[in-house]
Design a protein that fits this description.
By secondary structure, the protein is α/β, with parallel strands linked by helices. It folds into 4 domains: 101 residues, GMP Synthetase, Chain A, domain 3 (2-Layer Sandwich); 64 residues, K homology (KH) domain (GMP Synthetase, Chain A, domain 3), CATH 3.30.300; 266 residues, Metallo-beta-lactamase, Chain A (4-Layer Sandwich); 187 residues, 3-Layer(aba) Sandwich (Rossmann fold), CATH 3.40.50.10890. It is 33% helix and 22% strand. It is built from 21 helices and 28 strands. The strands form 6 sheets. It has a 7-stranded mixed sheet with strand order 12-11-10-9-8-7-28. It has a 7-stranded mixed sheet with strand order 13-14-15-16-17-26-27, covered by helices on one side. A hairpin with a 4-residue loop joins strand 4 and strand 5. Helix 1 packs across helix 3, helix 11 runs antiparallel to helix 12 and helix 11 runs antiparallel to helix 15. The two termini are 38 Å apart.
């Protein structure tokens, strides 16, 4: 049982670092918290323990019935403490596993279709996977209350993905492992102690340092620093650069990694999360904060990054053990949920509209000292997958925002225009007996293209041919089905109320072997192939390109951003003599297949949307810092905002620091 968002201001509990100080020791803090809880709940409820697990106050009690009968009690405690809280039963109240399983099965209706029940003895929580989680939870949480009452276990219900996701399954099982659970419990206690450590009361300040993605696209990384805290926002890699692939992590502002309080991820794309596991290789042992889908997608993309590097004969910067460490250290928070991440920093995640689980983190610093939003990559319009990025906040003085398509001429077609262009390209290509090869990012663009193709085939607008999904696309799509609550309102209605899931259509076929890939390449039948990677810088798409490029009947269809230096960008500029790798050796191929660029699928806002994002923001920011764009675009966009709205704007270079307060 957990609280929701908690409003500002905070109640200040801090720890003592000097003998004789008036500030609280950790043990004294726990005693004070316990007394505060007891004052709130009264004499009828026995509190047996209070402890921090990360930013959450965990309260153990022998009176779980009282919390079952009074649904507002948890919120009352959370509001009184100004903290997120979790209520857990005392060990003496917890029934045996076999008895509890039978009770859970008797309480939850068969229509909920429970697929797994897993028990965590360290937290006395039981995780229930169900195909219909709403039915498992019951009206107003009635079934969960019955489970607490009849078993003593604190239940959590999660959705069973309709397409089995190996990533989701492996992560859930990994976190349930007893050894991992014990490590995580100690880690969360350590995080709690760090969050509520002693800080001075005197002058505070706020500044941001640009460590990557400034006047460039790729390797996004920012350091938010106050007098008392250091927060790293995104740790990306530039996969298209051989000279400068990594952010400036060696700088004194960042080192040593152990001095960092928290890492916050906006989303899972490699240019924002690709080097997070590297931190654990070199000494970081703190938390990562992100949404649940971002955690799963980050792990998926990081493991694939290792795999692709190995296949290309390159040494990956980290290994799978570092990825597991990142998962173990991740604390997930949902949209609009507020949590402490440092003694003077509170974090709230807001929808960014870019990919599944993408977020714009809002940082509330001190007791009202300053508020900053890091936009991450944003899409300020509703797409086929997601609602538009949020730009309404309780308070905001400064925004650090992307400008990928912030240039004067960066105006994208509408989604409808993009769909019409897809229909036209597919009709021409398939009617002449060709194959359409669509290089895609596994996350985001793949699923939007799938939705459009599914609808057009279903309506008879394009020929019904196989749509092959190669690379991580199938797995990424499976993760989308595990988190439908992060999709837009219309798609959720279609899935839940009309039982129409576009990702489950028979048009889509998973490519699960090299033999199947060879059959597709050699088949004379027309088809559509979606394959990674999206910029033609490696991955299975290169196998198809080598085979399909010489045939003029085929078409290469670009639907995403092509960074400078990538093969995709070079083809867009007119390159026809391609040098690719074949068994580790360079091979020349002549591109005779046509190519088309369909811009309307971008997960980034164009110039008009970026300007609207700022102009309609509530409240209006005083300062805007521009990053994640080509140099001239950043500088032009920055000056345009200044001229139009009179706000202070910056387009800094990497390694510059801006003081906000």
């Amino acid at each position: 049982m957990r609280s929701g968002s908690i409003a500002y201001p905070t109640r200040r509990y801090v720890l003592c670092s000097a003998k004789g100080s008036d500030l609280l020791t950790y043990e004294a803090l726990i005693r004070k918290l316990r007394k505060d809880v007891e004052d709130i709940v009264g004499d009828k409820i026995t509190i047996t323990g209070v402890e921090f697990e990360g930013p959450v106050v965990v309260i153990q009690t022998k009176n779980m019935d009282e919390f079952v009968y009074d649904s507002n009690l948890v919120r009352k405690i959370a509001q009184g403490l100004k903290r997120r809280v979790a209520i857990r039963p005392h060990d003496s109240l917890v029934f045996g596993i076999e008895e509890s399983v039978n009770a859970i099965k008797a309480i939850i209706p068969e229509e909920a279709k429970v697929t797994d029940i897993a028990f965590n003895h360290d937290s006395n929580e039981v995780t229930i996977e169900a195909i219909s989680p709403g039915l498992a939870i019951g009206k107003h949480g009635a079934n969960l209350n019955e489970i607490k009452k009849n078993t003593g276990w604190a239940p959590q219900v999660v959705r069973t993905p309709p397409i089995e996701s190996r990533s989701v399954k492996d992560i859930r099982h990994f976190l349930k492992d007893p050894q991992v659970t014990e490590k995580r419990k100690e880690f969360l206690k350590k995080v709690g102690r760090r969050i509520f450590r002693d800080i001075p009361d005197d002058d505070n300040w706020v500044r941001t340092t640009s460590l990557g993605s400034y006047r460039e696209v790729g390797r996004a990384c920012h350091m938010l620093t106050t007098r008392n805290s250091k927060v790293l926002i995104d740790v990306g890699v530039n996969v298209g650069s051989h000279d400068h692939p990594s952010p400036y992590l060696q700088m004194s502002e960042v080192q040593p990694f152990e001095s960092i309080d928290a890492v916050v991820l906006t989303h899972a794309h490699l240019d924002h999360s690709g080097l997070v596991p590297l931190l654990y290789k070199y000494g970081y042992d703190g938390p990562i904060y992100c949404t649940p889908p971002t955690r799963d997608l980050m792990a998926l993309l990081a493991l694939d990054y290792i795999k692709v590097a190995g296949a290309e004969g390159k040494r990956p910067p980290y290994d799978s053990e570092n990825v597991r460490e990142a998962i173990l250290h991740t604390i997930v928070i949902k949209y609009n949920e507020t949590t402490d991440i440092a003694p003077d920093v509170r974090l709230t995640m807001h929808n960014a509209g870019h990919i599944l689980g993408s977020a714009s983190p809002h940082f509330h610093i001190g007791d009202g000292l300053y508020n900053i939003v890091y936009s991450g990559d944003i899409k300020y319009e509703r797409t086929w997958l997601f609602n538009a990025a949020t730009n309404k906040f309780p308070r905001v003085e400064a925004v650090v925002m992307e400008s990928t398509y912030g240039g004067k001429r960066d105006f994208q077609p509408t989604r409808k225009e993009a769909a019409d262009q897809v229909r036209s390209v597919m009709q021409r290509t398939l009617s002449r007996g060709g194959k359409a090869l669509v290089p895609v990012f596994a996350v985001g663009r793949s699923q939007e293209v799938m939705i459009v193709l599914e609808k057009q085939m279903k309506m008879g607008q394009i020929p019904k041919v196989p749509i092959y999904l190669d690379g991580m696309i199938w797995e990424a799509t499976a993760i989308h089905t595990a988190y439908p609550e992060y999709l837009n309102n219309q798609l959720r209605t279609q899935i839940f109320q009309r039982n129409e899931n576009p990702f489950l259509t028979d048009f889509f076929r998973k490519v699960d072997s090299r033999e199947m890939r060879e059959e597709i390449k050699n088949s004379p039948e027309p088809c559509i192939i979606l394959a990674t990677s999206g910029m033609l810088n490696g991955g299975p798409v290169m196998d198809y390109l080598k085979h399909m490029a010489p045939d003029p009947r085929n078409c290469l269809v670009f639907v995403g951003y092509m960074a400078e230096g990538t093969l995709g960008r070079k083809i867009q500029k007119g390159l026809t003599e391609l040098i690719v790798q074949e068994k580790g050796k360079p091979m020349a191929i002549h591109l005779k297949a046509s190519f088309e660029t369909i811009d309307g699928f971008s997960g980034h806002s164009d110039r008009k949307q970026l300007i609207n994002y700022i102009s309609t923001m509530e409240p209006k920011p005083d300062r805007v810092v521009i990053h994640h764009g080509d140099e001239m675009k950043e500088m032009d966009f920055s000056s345009s905002l200044h001229r139009k709205y009179g706000m202070t704007t910056y387009a800094p270079m990497n390694l510059e620091t801006i003081r906000f307060k």
